[in-house]
């Protein structure tokens, strides 16, 4: 199965569905991890240099599970959901031909997250429409769309749980690839920065807390949760999550 995960920022996918993507890769799925923004907003430093660092980190994370990285390089903090911005999403969907798309929920906290959610919802339909002119032909196969967890789970009511206990350490390794995000956001990027231990940084404490909480709900050690987008052409009669 072709799986396409689309996150606004580098480390979003790892935080909210990294374990699930690792399980998809293990079962033989072709996984594509798409990062929409260029990441130049954090940490401090020359914007082009920081964007290159963030790109390298995202590529290292994807490589850990054998996934392909798609890097759209839109301005961090300025994603706008309109028909022009849909085009690269449509081209990506037509190229990957996914049977499963995972992205942000529409009610998430960050404007980049909510814009990406809307862009995915619009683009998955435009990608199958012949009268939307693009380089690649329409992808008319059935595509299930699932929303991953919102930030800190606020306002998110799960419908499906994925047991990620067996790959939880892989999820943490993927997160650690984004070492620039462990630095204080007010300080310039320092390539000699020493990574803190897991219990010393909110970034990792969040991963432990949310994965443990969702796992507790499902009577497993660690879990990630999802909600399906119910609409015409998006309802399947089989489970596509691992």
Describe the structure in brief:
This protein is α/β, with parallel strands linked by helices. Helices cover 36% and strands 17% of the residues. It has a single domain (2-228), classed as 3-Layer(aba) Sandwich (Rossmann fold).
How is this structure best described in words?
The protein is α/β, with parallel strands linked by helices and 242 residues long. It has a single domain, classed as LmbE-like (Rossmann fold, 3-Layer(aba) Sandwich). Helix content is 36%, strand content 17%. The protein has 6 helices and 7 strands. It has helices at residues 12-26, 47-64, 83-96, 111-126, 168-176, 202-217; strands at 2-7, 30-37, 68-74, 100-103, 144-148, 160-163, 223-228. It has a 7-stranded mixed beta sheet, sandwiched between helices. α2 (47-64) links the parallel β2 (30-37) and β3. The longest helix is centred in the N-terminal third of the chain and has 18 residues, at 47-64. The N and C termini lie close together (11 Å).
Tally of discrete structural domains = 1
User: Taking strands numbered 1, 2, ... along the chain, how are they ordered across the largest sheet?
Assistant: 3-2-1-4-5-7-6
Number of strands: 7
Query: CATH homologous superfamily?
Result: LmbE-like
| Sequence of secondary-structure elements | EHEHEHEHEEHHE
- The low-confidence parts are none
Strand content: 15-25%
Radius of gyration: 17 Å
């Amino acid at each position: 199965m072709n799986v396409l995960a689309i996150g606004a920022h580098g480390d979003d996918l790892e935080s909210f569905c990294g374990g699930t993507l690792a399980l998809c890769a293990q079962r033989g799925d072709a996984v594509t991890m798409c990062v929409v923004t260029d990441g130049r907003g954090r940490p401090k430093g020359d914007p082009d240099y920081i964007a290159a660092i963030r790109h390298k980190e995202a590529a290292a994370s994807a490589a850990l599970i054998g996934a392909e990285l798609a890097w759209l390089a839109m301005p961090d903090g300025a994603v706008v959901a309109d028909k022009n911005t849909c085009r690269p999403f449509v081209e990506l969907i037509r190229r990957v031909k996914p049977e499963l798309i995972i992205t942000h929920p529409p009610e998430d906290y960050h404007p980049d997250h909510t814009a990406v959610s809307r862009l995915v919802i619009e683009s998955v339909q435009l990608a199958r429409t012949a009268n939307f002119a693009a380089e690649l032909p329409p992808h008319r196969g059935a595509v299930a769309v699932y929303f991953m967890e919102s930030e800190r789970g606020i306002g998110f009511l799960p419908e499906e749980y994925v047991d990620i206990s067996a790959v939880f350490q892989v999820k943490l390794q993927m997160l650690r690839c984004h070492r620039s995000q462990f630095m204080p956001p007010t300080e310039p990027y320092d390539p000699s920065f020493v990574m803190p231990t897991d219990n010393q940084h909110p970034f990792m404490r969040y991963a432990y807390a949310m994965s443990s909480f969702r796992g507790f709900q499902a009577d497993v050690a660690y879990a990630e949760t999802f909600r399906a987008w119910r609409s015409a052409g998006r309802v399947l009669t089989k489970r596509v999550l691992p």
